Amino acid sequence: MALITWTADQYGTGVGFADSEHQTLFGLLNKLYDEATGGAARATIGASLDALIAYVVDHFAHEEREMLAKGFGGYDRHKAEHEAMVGICADLQKKFHAGQAEVTEEVGQLVKGWLDSHIPTFDMSYSDTLK
Ligand SMILES: [Fe+2]
Ligand SMILES: [Fe+2]
């Protein structure tokens, strides 16, 4: 079962690129979660983990470019939130590929929890400026 389902009610920012990228991101997260909790080969899980993290980094950079371009006042706080998440991802990625960590149910729930908090509070706050 999907870990996270995009709905406009819960996650819509009204900013086209962001809503579309969030849906792609959710799809990559669900794929990783299904593989990790469904006993897929470790190499498959690793490839999906890398793909998700690369997409997250690109998505954050895209939001940051747009916020800067429009002079959005919440840029610094928003970027700091992104950087904290990239740090968590990079740490997990490094440990996974060193055989020191696995992608678990808890990892999936942690990322979902972060998105459940970040999108409604931080991403929705740029809605009026970036629309
Ligand atoms: Fe976002
Ligand atoms: Fe964001």
Automatic annotation (TrEMBL):
<keyword id="KW-0561">Oxygen transport</keyword>
<protein>
    <submittedName>
        <fullName>Bacteriohemerythrin</fullName>
    </submittedName>
</protein>
<dbReference type="InterPro" id="IPR050669">
    <property type="entry name" value="Hemerythrin"/>
</dbReference>
<dbReference type="InterPro" id="IPR012312">
    <property type="entry name" value="Hemerythrin-like"/>
</dbReference>
<dbReference type="InterPro" id="IPR016131">
    <property type="entry name" value="Haemerythrin_Fe_BS"/>
</dbReference>
<keyword id="KW-0813">Transport</keyword>
<keyword id="KW-0479">Metal-binding</keyword>
<dbReference type="GO" id="GO:0046872">
    <property type="term" value="F:metal ion binding"/>
</dbReference>
<dbReference type="InterPro" id="IPR035938">
    <property type="entry name" value="Hemerythrin-like_sf"/>
</dbReference>
<dbReference type="InterPro" id="IPR012827">
    <property type="entry name" value="Hemerythrin_metal-bd"/>
</dbReference>
<feature type="domain" description="Hemerythrin-like">
    <location>
        <begin position="17"/>
        <end position="119"/>
    </location>
</feature>
<dbReference type="GO" id="GO:0005344">
    <property type="term" value="F:oxygen carrier activity"/>
</dbReference>
<keyword id="KW-0408">Iron</keyword>
<dbReference type="Pfam" id="PF01814">
    <property type="entry name" value="Hemerythrin"/>
</dbReference>
<comment type="similarity">
    <text>Belongs to the hemerythrin family.</text>
</comment>
